[in-house]
Amino acid sequence: MLVNLREILQQADKKRYAVGGFNFTSLETAIAIVAAAEAEKSPAILQISEKTIDYCGLELAFAIAKTLIDKSPRPIAIHFDHGRNFPLVKKAVEIGFSSVMLDVSKMPEKERIPFVKDFVEFAHKRNVTVEAEETVIAGREDYIQGEAHMFTDPKRAKQFTEETGIDCFAVSIGSSHGKPIPNENLHMDLLAEIDKAVSVPLVLHGASSTPKPLIRQAISLGICKINIDTDLRLAFTDEVRQTLRDESLYDPRDVLRPSIEAVKKVIEEKMKMFGSSQK
Asked: Sign of torsion, CA 88 91 95 97?
């Protein structure tokens, strides 16, 4: 059942759990995301990045997601992740995405609020929710290259969210995109300040392999959406390597089917950790 992000996150914010934003990179990972949502009776966010769109095309990526979601009884959003190609994000709104993210961290600061405000008005007229990131989050993944953290300023976050009218806000508190960084430190005191300053649900990017105690603490301090991508890629490719040890296999479907199950298992574990199972 296709829903927008607002419907999912309002419940999560009220009941203090988080919903996973899971990126799909292929048909198999998309199947795994929806199957995990059904197995755990959890809401979910099926995310599509610009690199996935370059790989298979906007229309095909959307068609894969919507076909799977339309057959599912679970509430699932189709979300454009880390949109920096703004004409492409606009097209995603027009073809039926239920949610989009604007990454305006590379824009001149004085242009960010007016641009996002106008885009929010455009999206809301079509019942599409908008997430935004204003501060660079470190790490490397797909086309995201944040060399160093620029931590979110709570006062600026309050101004940005109130003046733009966005539905949720991505914070920079020390997490990183891509493979986990040793001794990663999430600044929980800063997150608590942001949560007090901002009235919309908060989003944590770069949470693959973040320890469970930190995840649970972040949720208690206002995080309602947690993005997971790298852990899914690692599960998928590790399983492919194991499967290909059987040299008798030559049917791609037989090669890839175990990877669907491996990714599904990771997602189910994340849903339990986030508290969205049975919700």
From this structure: positive
pLDDT of residue 244: 96
The two tokens of residue 110 are: 């004085």
Q: Is the predicted pLDDT of residue 264 greater than 90, yes or no?
A: yes
Q: Write down the catalytic residue from 81, 167, 229, 231.
A: 81
Whole-structure pTM value: 0.91
Cα 226 to Cα 203: distance, rounded to the nearest angstrom: 6
Residue 279 is predicted with a pLDDT of 94
Q: Do 112 and 104 contact (CB within 8 A), yes or no? A: yes
Per residue, the 3-state secondary structure of the chain, as one string, reads CECCHHHHHHHHHHHCCCEEEEECCCHHHHHHHHHHHHHHCCCEEEEEEHHHHHHHCHHHHHHHHHHHHHCCCCCEEEEEEEECCHHHHHHHHHHCCCEEEEECCCCCHHHHHHHHHHHHHHHHCCCCEEEEECCCCCEEECCEEECCCCCCCHHHHHHHHHHHCCCEEEECCCCCECCCCCCCCCCHHHHHHHHHHCCCCEEECCCCCCCHHHHHHHHHCCEEEEEECHHHHHHHHHHHHHHCCCCCCCCHHHHHHHHHHHHHHHHHHHHHHHCCCCC
Task: Tell me if residue 81 is catalytic.
Answer: yes
In one-letter notation, the amino acid at residue 276 is: S
Number of C-beta neighbours around residue 226 at 10 A: 27
- What is the Cα 199 distance to its own chain's centre? 20
Residue pLDDT, tens place only, 10-19? 999 999 999 9
**Is 137:172 a contact under the CB 8 Å cutoff?**
yes
